[in-house]
Amino acid sequence: MIRGVALVLICAALALVPYFYRLELQARIEPGPQADAQVPPSPAETPGSGSERPGPVEGLQLDAPGPEDPPGGSLEVVDGDDLFALVTKQTTLGQYKPHDLEVIPEKMIHPDQRQWPYLLRREPLEQLTKMWEAAEADGVLLTVTSAYRDYATQERLFNEYAAAYGEEEASTFSARPGQSEHQLGTTLDFDPRGGKAGWDWLEENAHHYGFALSYPDAQAITGYIEEPWHYRYIGVAAAREWKESGLVLCEYLKLLQHRSAQQPVFNSSILKDPFR
User: Fold this and answer.
1) What is the pTM of this model?
2) How many CB atoms lie within 10 A of CB 42?
3) Measuring CA to CA, which residue among 118, 132, 105 is closest to residue 205?
4) Is CATH 3.30.1380.10 correct for 2-272?
């Protein structure tokens, strides 16, 4: 009898490990509702405005190639208007800013962060609204903790992380300016209320509304630690195909590039090294 009860307790504890690991990841990176949450603006700015910001932290040279940049520091410039733009540590969006940003309704924002506007491009906002309503019908409240961030905001964020954790560690969980998917205006960080059930709902349903998880537990491929809250909109059809493929998002987007160039789709060398 005692042995049976002990076995049940052990199984229950093991089932909760992924959930508590996820919480530990968030707490390790930054206090607050989400690790990659919108940075509170200074009195002279609002998120995404690109107005005044603090200067670089002493000792950092963000204009110089970082340790993860390709040899010679040459970064490929990508077009942020491309829904499938490959945003990695080998590319840059430069000063790109979307042209059709709209304000996310306050009810979708985390309660602790509703004093600032959060922006998203028109099409992903339409799909976010549908997903939010579907989740609510299933008893899950999806709350947004970060959305569009411009180059200036990302520069400030990375500088602050680098000052706190060191540049090398900061680069494992924060993108350098010009290299954040948030700059696309199609990317969101979520904090689904309701514990593990909320996270499970997001993982199982987000692709039906065009959102793909950017950073699973695949740091060797993405260069970033796992971020189960970070989703990027790539369109409903593409997101469903991505989900079915089982590929990491950056691998899938690289595959689309080869497909559009009329190169063989299933090339094993492409899948082994999506950045070659």
Assistant:
1) 0.74
2) 12
3) 132
4) yes
